[in-house]
Design a protein that fits this description.
With 248 residues, the protein is an alpha/beta fold. It has helices spanning 40-48, 72-78, 95-106, 112-125, 143-157, 173-188, 201-205, 228-236, 238-245, and strands spanning 2-11, 14-24, 29-33, 56-62, 65-66, 80-83, 161-165, 192-196, 212-217, 220-225. The radius of gyration is 18 Å and the shape is globular. The structure holds adenosine-5'-diphosphate and magnesium ion.
Length: 248
């Protein structure tokens, strides 16, 4: 479904991602971990079609099609959705109206009533009040609320692939549970999840059966394994694993 070959992304003339290879199939679960500054968010932004990350070398194919010429909203319509580490604020757009527009664009055939119902039930799932839906997007929302709002969008859209960049950063325990529930829900319904995260509590709440875990260093994935690699990272830290496998 997603295939990345020899990806190189430069910023200010400096290569941040180098020779990165990664692929994900239908309904798979991938965890991407790595030290700060190793390039994880750069990968996420590049995949999302962030306008500052469109000049890359190598190939990114989604459903067998090169996506370099697709803008972020076109990628979303194709089924590729991204949650940001620091979701942007958009002033002047009411959350409910925004969600309604997104749904109309994605499944335009559904009637207004159905859309209203979908938004209402997802809002409850994510622990939001109706009152919050009348606010502007991300204005006056806490970090945790913004992350939850992204998962709410994901639940409504049910993308084919969802890339989440640290959905656990700056989030309290209760929000963490709501977020992990949604990630599990989406994966059970067939969404391929690529979860970029630090070690820790989020992964404990996620069903990692059959997941692939990838470790990042200096702009590329240098080793991959099964779910027990998460525990190894917690026990040893990245540097020791990299020294031991000689893959640094
Ligand atoms: P991670 O998400 O793994 O912490 P990032 O992808 O955010 O890493 O950053 C990887 C490296 O790229 C860091 O050294 C960072 O300083 C650098 N970097 C990220 N964005 C930019 C940018 N817009 N311009 C220049 N350097 C950048
Ligand atoms: Mg990051």
């Amino acid at each position: 479904m997603l295939e990345i070959k020899n990806l190189e992304v430069k910023k200010d003339g400096l290569a941040i991602l180098k020779n990165l290879n990664f692929s994900a199939g239908n309904s798979e679960f991938h965890v991407v971990m790595g030290p700060n500054g190793s390039g994880k968010s750069t990968l996420a932004r590049t995949l999302a079609g962030h306008p500052e990350y469109t000049n890359y070398e190598g190939s990114i194919k989604f459903k067998n099609r090169e996506i370099s010429d697709l803008k972020a909203d076109e990628r979303l319509r194709e089924g590729l959705m991204m949650g940001f580490q620091h979701p942007p604020r958009i002033n002047g757009v009411n959350i409910k109206r925004f969600l309604t527009r997104v749904l109309e664009k994605i499944d335009g055939k559904e009637g207004a009533e159905k859309i209203e119902e979908k938004i209402k039930s997802a809002t409850e799932e994510l622990g939001f009040s109706e009152d919050l839906l009348t606010r502007n997007i991300n204005a006056g929302l806490s970090g945790g609320e913004r992350k939850r709002l992204e998962l709410l969008q994901a639940r409504l859209i049910e993308p084919e692939i969802l890339i989440l960049d640290e959905p656990d950063s700056g989030v309290d325990v209760d929000s963490l549970e709501l977020i992990s529930d949604q990630i599990n829900w989406l994966h059970e319904r067939g969404t391929t999840v690529v979860l970029i995260t630090h070690y820790g509590s989020l992964l404990e709440e996620i069903d990692l059966e059959g997941a692939r875990v990838h470790l990042f260093s200096d702009g590329k994935i240098i080793t991959s394994g099964e779910q027990d690699l998460v525990r190894e990272v917690e026990d040893k830290g990245f540097n020791r694993i990299y020294e031991e496998c000689g893959c640094d």
